[in-house]
Design goal:
Chain lengths: 330, 326
């Protein structure tokens, strides 16, 4: 931005803040320095339109109205109570939390927004030291679709995106009236009314492909009062925590070659020794929480881990290894 | 955001900032705004030219410089910063809520107080539409490890840890000089100088099986730099070997779970991906565990190693003593 334009914009803000009367564009042209450079009505009008847009993008609440019924054109002013940040004081531990929060995001866009907030808080007199070294550094990962979805939720606008369900190559365009963005078990979801299925649905942000497009007018989406977004996501199949503590469904007895498979050993209890062929090893017991993924895990160890029992697990592991060796059946 | 796009917010914040801190040093102010002192002086010179209609000497913003310090003598009505935009309030408040849900970072009560104050000050710009739920449940042993690691960091002590490396599938004892505790997506890591590796390493807290605080001072060498997290915790390194895999539909989850590059959608719902790996034994375990759902296209020696391990496993299983009922 040129110095001249920055200066003109600051003067415009000061002029509109200091007036209780609405100032017409013509009046602004006459008093705010910088507009005198406009050589024609048309040039001024273009300049002023651009400046108004800039102020609105900065978040400045520009009011329009007429001072009396006799006025023929609308004027502008900025209400101080809507412009100014409210009083705020933060205790040192609160300020530390704010500084950490501002650098939590891994997206430059969101970090920029959070820093914008810090600049204003500092200008309000709050001491926030965001360069202070901390021993704990938290980070939140977001998907590229996070910011556009959040903006659409806040503006109440319908969105369209390509979505790929887990384990499926099929991309499908989904049209959603978004109600909210939810973080559940360290993953992000968007919840809303799926127009194609005519039912509430939730979508995982990491499976959204490409751009999120907004369609239609803002303010169209109405979020039902009685829906709890978090409970909705938590109750949707596929959102379970794979690491959740669950009670073991069964017990497996394995043979583990000496000096191998440390990952299995640290989850298992040694119960004896056994020689297999010419190889020495431990017999261990392992609680099976998820038998299918346990079979994957055990098969991954190849000859280092063998299943003694149960048979069903031994067979699952054998099937996996056979398929690796010979490929799928006909 | 570009440098020039940051200028207007800064220009609108400077006068209230100096009003709140009479006589503050220019260097310090420049740091707070993340600009050079030279840029800050340019901004102040610009503001000096601005003021109220009339624009006489008594109408312009007046700043007094004394040496390297600045005070505001006339603010032209710019006494408070602009309120937070919806985006600013939302990103800060969601981050604070996420912080409150992450155990072991800061005092949760302080976070909640900060949330309440910012919500009140932000007023009309209150965010909506984002709910931050629970993080991943943390095992009690991991929470204890985290506390011990925190204590060591606070006291500046070295640690002795027994660590399970998932990539090597080995357990090793190491002495490390702690640098910081990272919590990324609710998973905790200790970043430390590892004396065994002679390098900076990240240790997942739930894989630290034993931890002991030593009397010895932590002394990471001066060249030990914390890792840049902008590409995630473990970004694939260009010098790592790579494998090309074809995943069947029921093995496609692996492409979502591990960092990889999708190369092509193939017929039958299969997916061709390129995956980098640090340790070959890890890659072999992954492919074997996918049980035929993944085929190694390259390199040949990896494909060969996977087949060999499968054949060895089947052969050895034949030597298992038969148990009654089998």
């Amino acid at each position: 931005m040129s110095t001249a334009r920055a200066e003109r914009l600051v003067n415009l803000v000061l002029a509109l803040l200091s007036t209780r009367q609405y100032l017409t564009a013509e009046r602004i042209r006459g008093i705010v320095p910088g507009y005198a450079d406009a050589t024609s009505d048309e040039a001024f009008s273009r300049m002023f339109e651009r400046d108004k847009t800039e102020l609105r993008e900065l978040g400045i609440p520009l009011e329009t109205g007429r001072n009396s019924a006799f006025d023929t054109v609308e004027g502008y002013r900025i209400a101080r109570r809507d412009y100014e940040l409210g009083e705020i004081e933060l205790a040192p531990d609160e300020a530390t939390a704010v500084a950490l929060a501002a650098r939590l995001w891994d997206s430059p866009e969101l970090t920029g927004q959070a820093h914008g907030a810090l600049v204003k808080l500092r200008a309000a007199g709050v001491e926030v030291d965001d360069n202070a070294p901390t021993i704990v550094e938290p980070r939140v990962h977001t998907e590229p679709s996070f910011a556009p979805l959040l903006a659409a939720v806040q503006d109440g606008q319908v969105v369209q995106f390509e979505y790929r369900r887990s384990g499926s190559p099929e991309r499908r365009r989904r049209t959603l009236e978004p109600w909210g963005v939810v973080s559940w078990r360290a993953r992000w979801y968007v919840v809303g009314h799926d127009r194609d299925r005519d039912a509430p649905r939730c979508f995982r942000l990491s499976r959204i492909l490409g751009e999120v497009r907004r369609i239609g007018e803002p303010g169209v989406v109405r979020r039902p009062q009685d829906v709890n977004l978090l409970e909705f996501v938590a109750g949707t199949p596929g959102t379970e925590d794979p690491d959740a503590d669950t009670s073991p469904v069964s017990l497996a007895r394995l043979w583990v070659a000496d000096g191998r498979a440390a990952g299995i050993r640290r989850r298992a209890r040694p119960v004896g020794r056994m020689t297999v062929g010419a190889d020495e090893g431990d017999v261990v017991e392992l609680d099976l929480l998820f038998p299918e993924s346990a079979a994957d895990w055990i098969a991954g160890h190849g000859p280092d881990v063998l299943v003694i029992e149960p048979d069903v697990l031994a067979k699952s592991v054998r099937d996996r290894l056979e398929r690796v060796l010979h490929g799928e059946g006909p | 955001m570009s440098r020039s796009a940051e200028r207007m917010p800064r220009l609108l914040a400077l006068v209230p900032y100096f009003l709140a801190r009479p006589g503050i040093n220019i260097e310090e102010a420049a740091q707070d705004f993340d600009v050079s002192p030279k840029q800050l002086r340019k901004d102040l010179e610009l503001l000096w030219m601005c003021g109220l209609p009339g624009y006489g000497p008594g109408d312009l913003i007046d700043l007094s410089f004394e040496g390297d310090t600045v005070s505001v003598t006339f603010d032209a009505g710019m006494r408070r910063p602009l309120r937070l935009t919806g985006g600013e309030a939302t990103t800060l408040l969601i981050a604070l809520r996420a912080l409150a849900e992450t155990p072991g970072v800061v005092d949760t009560a302080a976070v909640h107080r900060a949330i309440a104050k910012i919500e009140e000050a932000a007023g009309a710009a209150q965010p909506s539409g984002v709910v931050v739920g629970h993080g991943v449940r943390e095992a009690a042993s991991t929470a204890r490890t985290r506390e011990t690691v925190r204590d060591a960091l606070q006291a500046g002590r070295a640690l002795r840890i027994r660590y399970y490396s998932a990539s090597r599938d080995r357990i090793t004892d190491r002495t490390v000089d702690p640098m910081r505790l990272l919590i990324v997506q609710a998973i905790g890591y200790l970043e430390a100088w590892c004396r065994l590796a002679g390098d900076v390493r990240k240790f997942r807290l739930d894989r630290i099986d034993q931890v002991e605080v030593l009397d010895e001072q932590a002394a990471p060498p001066p060249h030990a730099e914390p890792t840049d997290l902008s590409e995630g915790v473990f970004s694939p390194q260009p010098d790592q070997p790579e494998a090309v895999l074809v995943l069947d539909p029921d093995a496609r989850w692996a492409a979502e779970y591990y960092p990889c590059e999708e190369l092509a959608e193939l017929d039958g719902g299969r997916l061709r991906v390129r995956m980098r790996y640090g340790d070959r034994s890890w890659m072999v375990r992954l492919v074997l565990g996918l049980g035929g759902g993944a085929r190694v296209e390259a390199p040949d020696d990896l494909a060969q190693a996977v087949r060999q391990r499968a054949a060895d496993a089947l052969e050895r299983a034949r030597h298992l003593p038969v148990i009654s009922g089998q």
